[in-house]
């Protein structure tokens, strides 16, 4: 009997056997241990990491983060380079990014000596925003290497960065994509935890289609990675010739992922239909090229001819002419001020160039892409309300997308100007 069971197990695991074995480094939220994991897929990683880190929770309850605090999912996992360090988070734990740890380390350095005076004690225990502002003033002001781009030209900028990007521009493009992905993941999580999604069948189908559209449109828009990419900045003078190649992209971008057929794509991603028996398609499902959105949506819309139910309606993916960086050609970013103000009152005191040095790059991670109209308090509740309507105006869905993911509603702000309170 054991021989039969073993044969059955090998047959059912054929797709995972065909996956390439890759190695990653995994640690816990306290960074107390770092272990090596060899795995074939995202679930395999979580199971092995839980076992080696003595995590007793169900692996499905455990989240995985990058060192910069970005939450990753199964699809994004397949874009990571081998030997990337990942953080395993159990329910209820808080993940600290590298920037958080940097400021905590600053607070603890020579703590006995530094806390000799009451004013210094207060400085080290209160007002994190003020500390960041002070750090910004004392950073290395040498900008002789700012214009350098490649790893060979400026190796210290890339030191300890777990990336295969060979230019600063490619790395910053990826970092911006990670921020936008985080907004997508949080949006999906809030939608699926809502009473509307769980209890209203028609609204749930509409929300699933909306999520599908968000993912497809974001792939088409390259997750707006060019917001942080100075090679996409507009020229300071109108007389300069714009020689930017807006069709060029980086290897890590989803537009370069492999493709599978439309039917397999829809089955596995959104329509929850029985999956294909083609194990090769399933094994490659996490490398879907969702940028071919028009083709996928055309396949989806064909279903409407056989079923006139409103849940068969899908949204058209829009093509954008070009994407423009929110920094200048040198890579300098300026704070845009609080959500309810016109500009930043601190002027040039709130500007930063992460292309200048490793220290500036770390500090830039504390700058926030802030929603003027709040995502969790306003945009998602509005989307849930729209989903319950009998007739959905697609312009409302497009408007939600723009407010969630584009600079129509996002502004880059210094930590001092980031208002975490209610935006009313």
UniProtKB/TrEMBL annotation:
Question: Residues in domain CIDE-N?
Answer: 20-97
Alphabetical keyword list: Apoptosis
Decide whether keyword Transmembrane helix is in the record.
no
InterPro entries linked to this entry = CIDE-N_dom, DFF40, DFF40_C, His-Me_finger_sf
Instruction: Quote the SUPFAM superfamilies the UniProt record gives.
Output: CAD & PB1 domains, His-Me finger endonucleases
| Molecular function GO labels | DNA endonuclease activity; hydrolase activity
Q: What's one Pfam family the UniProt record gives for this protein?
A: CIDE-N
GO biological processes: apoptotic DNA fragmentation
Keyword Metal-binding found: no
* Any one GO CC term of the record: nucleus
Q: What is this protein called?
A: CIDE-N domain-containing protein
What species does this protein belong to?
A: Atta cephalotes (Leafcutter ant)
Chain's gene name: 105622160
């Amino acid at each position: 009997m054991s021989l039969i069971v073993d044969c059955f197990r090998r047959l059912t695991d054929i797709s995972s056997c065909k996956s390439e074995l890759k190695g990653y480094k995994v640690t816990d939220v306290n960074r107390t241990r770092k272990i090596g994991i060899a795995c074939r897929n995202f679930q395999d990683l979580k199971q092995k990491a839980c076992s080696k880190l003595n995590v007793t929770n169900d692996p499905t309850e455990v989240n995985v983060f990058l060192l910069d605090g970005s939450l990753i999912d199964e699809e994004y996992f397949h874009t990571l380079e081998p030997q990337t360090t990942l953080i395993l988070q159990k329910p209820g734990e808080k993940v600290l990014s590298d920037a958080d740890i940097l400021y905590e380390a600053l607070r603890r350095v020579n703590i006995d000596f530094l806390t000799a005076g009451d004013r210094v004690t207060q400085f080290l225990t209160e007002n994190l925003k003020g500390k960041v502002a002070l750090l910004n003033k004392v950073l290395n002001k040498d900008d002789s290497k700012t214009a350098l781009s490649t790893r060979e030209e400026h190796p210290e900028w890339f030191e300890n960065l777990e990336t295969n990007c060979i230019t600063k521009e490619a790395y910053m493009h990826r970092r911006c994509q990670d921020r936008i992905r985080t907004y997508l993941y949080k949006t999906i999580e809030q939608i699926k935890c809502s009473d509307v999604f769980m209890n209203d069948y028609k609204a749930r189908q509409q929300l699933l289609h909306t999520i599908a559209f968000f993912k497809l449109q974001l792939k088409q828009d390259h997750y707006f990675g060019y917001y942080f990419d100075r090679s996409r900045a507009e020229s300071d003078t109108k007389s300069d010739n714009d020689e930017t190649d807006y069709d060029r992209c980086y290897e890590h971008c989803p537009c370069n992922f492999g493709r599978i057929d439309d039917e397999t794509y829809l089955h596995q991603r959104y329509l929850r239909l029985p999956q294909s028996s083609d194990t090769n398609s399933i094994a490659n499902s996490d490398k879907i090229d969702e940028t071919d959105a028009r083709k996928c949506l055309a396949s989806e819309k064909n279903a409407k001819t056989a079923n006139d139910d409103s849940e068969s309606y899908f949204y058209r993916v829009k093509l954008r002419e070009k994407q423009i960086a929110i920094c200048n050609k040198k890579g300098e970013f300026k704070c845009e001020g609080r959500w309810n103000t016109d500009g930043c009152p601190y002027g040039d005191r709130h500007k930063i160039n992460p292309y200048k040095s490793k220290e500036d790059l770390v500090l830039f991670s504390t700058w926030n892409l802030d929603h003027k109209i709040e995502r969790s308090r306003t945009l998602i509740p509005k989307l849930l309300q729209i989903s319950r309507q009998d007739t959905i105006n697609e312009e409302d869905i497009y408007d939600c997308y723009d407010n969630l993911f584009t600079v129509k509603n996002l502004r880059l702000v210094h930590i001092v100007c980031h208002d975490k309170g209610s935006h009313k």
